[in-house]
Amino acid sequence: MRALIDAIIAKDNPSVVGLDPKPALIPPILLNSARTVRDVAEAYFAFNIAIIDAVYDIVPAVKPQIAMYEALGPAGLDVYVRTNEYAQTRGLYVLGDIKRGDIGSTAAAYAAHIEGTPSINGVGSTDVWHEDAVTVNPYLGSDGILPFVQAANNSNKDIFVLVKTSNPSSNELQDLRVDGFAHTVATQVAELVEQWGENSRANKYGYSRVGAVVGATHPVLGAQLRTLMPHTFFLVPGYGAQGGTADDLAGLFDENGLGALINSSRGIIGAWKHTDEAETIRTELQALNLVATSARQAALAMKNDIARVRA
What we know:
TIM Barrel, orotidine-5'-phosphate decarboxylase activity, EC 4.1.1.23
């Protein structure tokens, strides 16, 4: 986590912009001329570039949600990779929201997202995805996580394990009582996350390479998880459009105002929709400029909002 934490400190901002494009969030004029899936994908790319260029000096990281790109097939995945690569050229930490989870050789294959493609016939490992971290699903237990832990250690990258997610139905599984009612599923996973990361804490901040996804929509439990996972950095969805507020975040930070990376997707990339200018767009250039200026203003507002509650 050192690269991420260094970036957070440098920009005095623990926020990440979710790059989750979909037609409803893109100015219609950018899609009006699209005739193929590739055309739509290229509109996504132009949209992403406008946002990255607008916020790269404000935020430390971006988080592309791979599902939005997979929905467009190969053309979308190409734009996912190009978006990641471009964001890295702008000095941003790229957190690939892929939520993979499987066992054995399949998990190891998924872990190539961060470790790179394997060396074959003398051809060296290649980082084809351009991600600094990925999200992973722990439902299959250690068999599904340890290949990612090994890949993170080998490649000097990070993973974030789903622990307590921000969606309303998370309680159906994550709040179930286990272990003689001593734990919920979420707190049981939290203890495992601490264990999975215990051999990768050798940095000046004391956080391991194994982070946790903890939703802002559960502030009381989030504060408890902060105590339960002192060496685990949090990725925090749920702020803004999903109902989480800055006040809900206070218990997720450590005593130094670190320990959590707060995500906003629609609130930043869709900020243009809430402007008066949205009704008067006439050209693609106007649209991209409005997307950029609105995203920048929203990112700055988020930074200032979060600053109120950091220790």
